[in-house]
């Protein structure tokens, strides 16, 4: 079993999901009281949020790179960034360590293409939906994302940071996401990327006939394969 280092706390709500999903899957695979060998650095999310708001991605990258180096120094054999948006600085993190980075877009694109799909709705933070790092990253991997209009981008972003990141779940926010998905389906979306690790706390596959690609779940599965050396 390999030891995985997790860069967490972005937000704590989704980090809990990663931790539980990974450990539960390892237990199912190995039985008994087996659990994953994990190391975690849970950063102060406010520090990251302020970097995002000020577009100081260099500082954000430096924060995560430093923590990744710490995890490697104490035995991590791979690094996972437990957040979609912070994959904007994935290059800085990978360059700071000698162990592999488990990139969220690799597993997301692979699962979408495995279902024979190409055009998918993308929901996430405004950074994820509007910035080239995620949209172009999907395109480079053979997936064409369809993003909401500007007003919807802002409202989804607000819901993520003001509600989901602090554990608030509102029925009206769920309805807003589902209406947005309906609108994107009309534009040709064949599936939906839940491109923020908190969105899966609000909506899930039972809410739609379109296939959902919950990035936190898929990333956790990627982590389990790495840990179990599959």
TrEMBL record:
<dbReference type="InterPro" id="IPR033134">
    <property type="entry name" value="Asp/Glu_racemase_AS_2"/>
</dbReference>
<dbReference type="GO" id="GO:0047661">
    <property type="term" value="F:amino-acid racemase activity"/>
</dbReference>
<dbReference type="Pfam" id="PF01177">
    <property type="entry name" value="Asp_Glu_race"/>
</dbReference>
<dbReference type="InterPro" id="IPR015942">
    <property type="entry name" value="Asp/Glu/hydantoin_racemase"/>
</dbReference>
<dbReference type="InterPro" id="IPR001920">
    <property type="entry name" value="Asp/Glu_race"/>
</dbReference>
<keyword id="KW-0413">Isomerase</keyword>
<comment type="similarity">
    <text>Belongs to the aspartate/glutamate racemases family.</text>
</comment>
<protein>
    <submittedName>
        <fullName>Aspartate/glutamate racemase family protein</fullName>
    </submittedName>
</protein>
<dbReference type="InterPro" id="IPR004380">
    <property type="entry name" value="Asp_race"/>
</dbReference>
């Amino acid at each position: 079993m390999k030891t995985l280092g997790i860069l967490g706390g972005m937000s704590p709500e989704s980090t809990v999901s990663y931790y539980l999903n990974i450990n539960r899957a390892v237990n199912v695979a190995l039985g008994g009281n087996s659990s994953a060998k994990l190391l975690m650095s849970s950063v102060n999310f406010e520090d990251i949020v302020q970097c995002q708001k000020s577009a100081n991605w260099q500082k954000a990258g430096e924060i995560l790179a430093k923590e990744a180096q710490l995890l490697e120094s104490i035995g991590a054999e791979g690094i996972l960034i437990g957040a979609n948006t912070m994959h904007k600085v994935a290059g800085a993190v990978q360059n700071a360590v000698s162990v592999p980075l488990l990139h969220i877009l690799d597993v997301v694109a692979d699962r979408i293409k495995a279902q024979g799909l190409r055009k998918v709705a993308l929901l996430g933070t405004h950074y994820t939906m509007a910035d080239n790092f995620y949209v172009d990253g999907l395109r480079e991997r053979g997936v064409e994302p369809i993003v909401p209009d500007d007003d919807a981008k802002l409202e989804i972003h607000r819901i993520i940071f003001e509600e989901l990141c602090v554990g608030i779940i509102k029925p009206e926010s769920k309805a807003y996401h589902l209406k947005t998905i309906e609108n994107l389906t009309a534009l040709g979306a064949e599936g939906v990327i839940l491109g923020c690790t908190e969105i899966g706390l609000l909506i899930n596959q039972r809410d739609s006939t379109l296939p959902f690609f919950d990035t936190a779940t898929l990333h956790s599965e990627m982590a389990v394969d790495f840990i179990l050396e599959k």
